[in-house]
Design brief:
The protein is 58% helix and 3% strand. With 394 residues, it is mostly helical. The protein is elongated, with a radius of gyration of 38 Å. The protein starts with a helix and ends with a helix.
Length: 394
């Protein structure tokens, strides 16, 4: 503590003036530099729900040190869910370690129930997390080792969804807040149907049959109470799962999707929904009529032809005859009309047949070219023109 004072004293002696004139020189005042007290790591610079310490905590987590400083399972899981919400691109890189840590932590029925509830709440309460939540559920259903008597992860998840499913009619008739929560559940169940894989005894992968039937009943509940936000939720669900549901129903010989479309048409005619919502419903009917926007390509071993491929002429240009009639490659007399077009159009109006510019000299490239062809080239060119004319007449 004495050392700095000695340095100051020594410095003052070295800088002491030798004369009175130097003492009289005015000293220039320097304005103090204002330094911000706000750190770059301040909470103001992070989105709400983002834990800036999560990456380090998660990377340092291990079974011996209390899981990176997390005291409870809920704290650890919720931090990871928030982290995944803010940075969904980290899923592939971090999900394996997350599942490994859970296998060391989740070793009781209560802990597994808590894990299911945390993920369910995040997927149905945080906007845009339903897809990521469904992917997370699918991964954990295959990689969590605990399987208590009360049921494994997938079974407990479906039981939790059934609790909400059984209240579907009351929720669809409820107030705005109740319906909003119900719609989040509906869309999560749709994502779960698309992403939750069930492996059979022979190794085949299928979707959960119970979810397929559940989505049908949820659509009935939404259309039975045709207020605007219920109908919008139904449109979103069908855009998400419509093609997959219809394929699955057709495999069973069912025509359930036609019944759903008929229900939509009745709603458009009878319900007192807004004009915009009716427009959305009609667009959905149009989407289904186009096979949900899917283009079925021809078989790999079969060459595409106008007979077996309806889109064969899709990318062909449209031309016009001399009288303004449009024609394309799909027209029977396409070749004749196209040849007529070639003869009618002067493709190089500014140049003579031998390439000389009518506009006169000035272009350095053309100025260097002789007007006459080499005799051998000229003879070959005339022969080519005669053969072309002969083929055209045939």
């Amino acid at each position: 503590s004495e050392h700095p004072r000695q340095m100051v004293s020594s410095g003052s002696q070295l800088s002491a003036p030798d004369s009175g004139l130097e003492m009289a020189k005015p000293q220039v005042a320097v304005a103090p530099v204002v330094m911000s007290k706000l750190s770059v790591k301040a909470p103001e610079f992070y989105p709400s729900g983002y834990n800036q310490n999560f990456n380090q905590n998660f990377a340092d987590s291990s079974f011996e040190d209390g899981y990176g400083g997390y005291l409870t399972l809920a704290e650890y899981v919720q931090d990871f869910l928030n982290h995944l919400t803010e940075q969904p691109g980290c899923f592939e890189n971090e999900i394996e370690q997350f599942a490994e840590t859970l296998n060391g932590w989740v070793n009781t029925d209560e802990a597994l129930q808590e894990l299911v509830e945390l993920i369910y709440q995040q997927a149905t309460s945080v906007p845009n997390f339903s897809y990521m939540g469904a992917r997370l559920c699918n991964y954990l259903s295959h990689h969590l080792t605990i399987s208590p008597q009360s049921g494994n992860f997938r079974q407990l998840l479906l039981q939790r969804c059934r609790t909400e499913f059984e209240n579907r009619d009351e929720a669809a008739k409820g107030d705005e807040a109740t319906r909003k929560q119900f719609h989040a559940f509906v869309l999560f169940l749709g994502e779960l149907y698309l992403n939750l894989e069930i492996k059979g005894t022979k190794g085949q992968v299928t979707r959960a049959e119970i979810l397929q039937e559940g989505l049908r009943e949820l659509l009935n509940a939404l259309f039975s109470n045709p207020v605007d936000n219920n109908l919008i939720c139904a449109v979103k669900l069908l855009k998400l799962t419509g093609s997959v549901l219809e394929d699955a129903w057709k495999e069973k010989g069912k025509d359930d999707m036609s019944e759903v479309i008929q229900r939509i048409e009745n709603v458009v005619l009878d319900a007192n929904c807004s004009r915009d919502v009716k427009h959305m419903l009609l667009k959905l009917v149009e989407l289904r009529s186009s096979n949900w926007g899917r283009v079925l390509g021809t078989s790999s071993h079969t060459e595409a032809t106008p007979e077996n491929d309806p889109n064969y002429f899709m990318n062909e240009p449209t031309f016009y005859t001399s009288d303004g009639t449009p024609f394309t490659a799909a027209d029977p007399d396409y070749q004749e009309q196209y040849q007529e077009l070639l003869e009618r159009v002067d493709w190089f109006p500014d140049y003579e047949e031998n390439g000389t510019d009518f506009s006169g000299a000035g272009e350095p490239y053309f100025d260097d070219i002789d007007d006459e062809m080499d005799p051998e080239i000229e003879e070959a060119y005339e022969k080519f023109c005669q053969e072309s004319e002969h083929e055209r007449k045939q």
